[in-house]
Amino acid sequence: MAGFLPHIYDTAMKPLEKTRFEKIRKNLVLQATGHVLEIGFGTGANFRYYRNAERVDAIEPNPEMGKQAGKRIRKSKTPIHTYEAIAEELPFDDNSFDTVVATLVFCTIPDPVKALEEICRVSKPGAKILMFEHVKMDQPVMGKTQEALTPVWKKLCDGCHLNRDTFDLVNRSPLEIVNVESYYGGLFLTIESRKPL
């Protein structure tokens, strides 16, 4: 299934990317400055929005996704260096990055708590952590529906957890939440946080 997903991902996401998703993603990524780490770059949907970054180091565990991103890497005006790696074991030194970006990826990370610990480790003090994620909804009916669908959804969508409460995970991490914006009735959030000084 992992080899199949990259071929349908861009097609499935295209209607969303052409609507509000594109604006949300662009506005978030434009805030990335300095030396940037992107977690789970997928097919490279964010690469065209890195206009204020000096360099982007981007990780992705799925090699098929990485192949799909080649064209977007070549078109980027910012130097982008990709690595086949997982968020729970980042191949970078402590205090390396000014900004970390993660969009629509924390739902698939097997150990998101460890991933947040690693993001804290490799971020400089005061670094910005910019996330756009779908989360478990507060509405009881929708939340129960997400719980019921998650086992099948994980198998179909490369390990995606519909019921993951990423906001709560960030809130319980050492990161300081600066701003949260809600979209589509609370199904999607942008979470802007920072590593404490």
Automatic annotation (TrEMBL):
Protein name: Methyltransferase type 11
Lineage of the species this protein comes from: Bacteria, Bacillati, Bacillota, Bacilli, Bacillales
Keyword field contains Transferase: yes
Keyword check for Methyltransferase: yes
Any one of the GO BP annotations: methylation
Methyltransferase type domain mapped to chain residues: 37-130
Residues spanning the membrane: none
Pfam families (UniProt xref): Methyltransf_11
SUPFAM superfamilies: S-adenosyl-L-methionine-dependent methyltransferases
Gene Ontology MF: a single term: S-adenosylmethionine-dependent methyltransferase activity
Keywords, in A-Z order: Methyltransferase, Transferase
Domain of life: Bacteria
